[in-house]
Amino acid sequence: MAQMTMIQAITDALRTELKKDPKTLVFGEDVGVNGGVFRATEGLQNEFGEDRVFDTPLAESGIGGLSIGLALQGFRPIPEIQFFGFVFEVMDSIAGQMSRMRYRSGGRYHMPITVRSPFGGGVHTPELHSDSLEGLMAQTPGLKVVVPSTPYDAKGLLLSSIRDNDPVIFLEHLKLYRAFREEVPEEEYTIPLGKADVKREGTDLSIFTYGAMVHESLKAADELQKEGYSVEVVDLRTISPLDIETIIASVEKTGRAIVVQEAQKQAGIAANVISEINERAILSLDAPVLRVAAADTVYPFSQAESVWLPNYKDVMETAKKVLTF
User: Fold this and answer.
1) Contact of 66 with 27, CB cutoff 8 Å
2) 40 within 8 A of 10, measured Cβ to Cβ
3) The CA-based dihedral angle spanning residues 292, 296, 301, 306, taken in that order and rounded to the nearest 10 degrees
4) pLDDT tens digits along 262-279
5) Which residues are catalytic?
6) pTM (2 decimals)?
7) What are the distances in angstroms from CA 211 to CA 60, 66, 208, 230, 239?
8) Alpha helices per DSSP H over the chain
9) What is the pLDDT, as a whole number, of residue 250?
């Protein structure tokens, strides 16, 4: 075991797979010589060469097209979109091509592409750099969407994503890159995609969340325990497909739930979770399922983001509404 930050765990996963499979390729803007804007690929070009880890022009559309062509030729591309706010430049490749290729070809071709990208607020980035656009991906059939919240999960989920034969959008929250360290095995291991993780057991209320909001929710659960409430926190980890079995089992145990996301309320992940709960377990509920989310506005300039972003106090306030319903 080694103590790793999330960025170190991601680098370790990339190195592991580059060593294991000569068909894996890492490329994107500044990922080679500079090791990426957040140093996620630091040292990999020196270790594996310019044919395996290389820089691309500043053109996300080109990165997407290159990924598709390489996948059709038997490679496993791992492209990086430098910030996920720039995903609009590559949406046709992702939603119009990658996600449909298996169906379009009758199963003849696969798209084993893992699109890595940082996202998320709380670090005072310029405009378009912190947007939470995971809802766009999750509503696109044919894509798997993964959002780790810890270094341990990041490595295991990334290895599973790279080895998957379908396209995976792997989103890395900026605020978590170097927020803390935890023990991560130095050997390879995988975490199944589509499987949530109960980060904290509880009996009075279930909180379903992902990414940086996992940590805000755990903090809220700690505070609520001081007031006598037992709160369960479920990290979705994969937001498409959802782990419906774990979600429903938690609701049936606690009878109450809230869903927490950093993205705007209209962005859809929380709404989808609530719909699944209502369709499958409404008779197990003792109160309505509520949401904690950002306001339905564009992401604010950095001076105002601390007011705009949800935090543990918002989670507590919403949780109490459900607990006292």
Assistant:
1) yes
2) yes
3) -20
4) 999 999 899 999 999 999
5) 129
6) 0.97
7) 24, 29, 11, 22, 10
8) 6-20, 44-48, 60-72, 91, 101-104, 134-138, 151-163, 213-226, 244-254, 269-281, 305-308, 312-323
9) 98
